[in-house]
Amino acid sequence: MNGDDGRGSGGASVGDGDRGQHSIDRHLFAGLVRTIDWVDNSLQNILAFRGFEPVHRTQSLILVHIVNGVENPAEIAREMGSTR
Predict the structure, then answer these.
(1) pLDDT in tens, 50-59
(2) C-beta of residue 63 within 8 angstroms of C-beta of residue 40
(3) Are the CB atoms for 54 and 44 separated by under 8 Å?
(4) What stretches of 7-79 show up as alpha helix (H) in DSSP?
(5) CA R_g for the chain
(6) pLDDT higher for 2 or 59?
(7) Who's near 58: CB < 8 A, 6+ residues apart?
């Protein structure tokens, strides 16, 4: 046996393994930010096309929760990591 645990560490130091995970986290986070931006921009375009006033990004995210069936203000706040 070569001491490889099957998780790809292959004898790398703890610091080396952490660097890979942080890279994945950064890419995941960047993708999520791009997605939120796309949703907000799309909503703003739809609202403008239909003659409505634009909304703030927070309001866009609240609308996303409502569309997904979360209507209780306290639950929306909890899911967004805020208080109502």
Answers:
(1) 999 999 999 9
(2) no
(3) yes
(4) 14-49, 57-67, 73-79
(5) 20
(6) 59
(7) none
Task: Note down the domain range covering 38.
Answer: 18-79
Q: How many structural domains comprise the chain? A: 1
More confident residue, 26 or 36: 36
Mean pLDDT of all residues in the chain? 80
Calculate mean pLDDT across residues 23-49: 91
Phi/psi at 8 (5° precision): 85, 5
Please name the amino acid found at residue 26. Answer: R
Domain assignment of residue 43, yes or no: yes
In this structure, is residue 3 part of a structural domain? no
Six-digit token string for 10: 């292959």
In a domain, 4, yes or no: no
Asked if residues 60 and 40 have their Cβ atoms less than 8 Å apart, the reply is: yes
The number of residues making up the chain comes to 84
pTM greater than 0.90 (yes/no): no
